Amino acid sequence: MATDPSEYEKAMPIVAAHLAKIERAVNQTRASHAGQSFPVVHQALVEALQDEGAQRVVPQVVEELARQISESVAGLSGSAG
Predict the structure, then answer these.
(1) What pLDDT sits at residue 1?
(2) pLDDT above 90: residue 2
(3) Model confidence over 30-81: pLDDT tens digits?
(4) Which residue, 29, 31, 32, 36, is CA-closest to 65?
(5) Axis crossing angle, helix 59-71 with helix 38-52, rounded to the nearest 10
(6) Dihedral sign for Cα atoms in the order 56, 59, 62, 66
(7) HSE-up (13 A, CA, CB side) for residue 15
(8) Neighbours of 4 (CB within 10 A)
(9) What is the pTM of this model?
(10) Is 18 helix (H, G, I), strand (E, B) or coil?
(11) Alpha carbons 17 and 20: distance in angstroms, whole number
């Protein structure tokens, strides 16, 4: 099944805007909750995503991000890679 390239071009700004919302929520949560317990971080991340209007994130992704933030040291930024 072929996809019209113009559909991709139309969708990309929407996808980019959604990813920016997720990134803001993650950065905000990391800055305020790094190193705290998983349940606290998870709740804060869920609330930050809602505040950004980005609550449509796969639950497993939210859990993994919360785990990473919980296990990170406060004051450090960036991601493992």
Answers:
(1) 58
(2) no
(3) 999 999 999 999 999 999 999 999 989 999 999 999 999 999 976 555 544 3
(4) 29
(5) 120
(6) positive
(7) 6
(8) 8
(9) 0.81
(10) helix
(11) 5
Q: What angle do CA 78, 24, 58 make, to 5 degrees?
A: 90
Name the CA dihedral angle for 20, 21, 22, 24, rounded to a multiple of 10 degrees: 80
CA 60 to chain centre: 11
Give CA–CA dist 57/28, Å, rounded.
16
**Structure tokens of 77?**
């930024």
Pull the structure tokens for residue 22: 């997720």
**Exposure pattern of 6-38 as b/e (b: 16+ CB <10 Å)?**
eeeeeeeeeeeeeeebbeebbebbbeebbebee
Q: Which residue matches tokens 């190193």?
A: 35
Alpha-carbon distance values, 48 to 14, 17, 30, 33, 56 (Å): 19, 16, 11, 11, 12
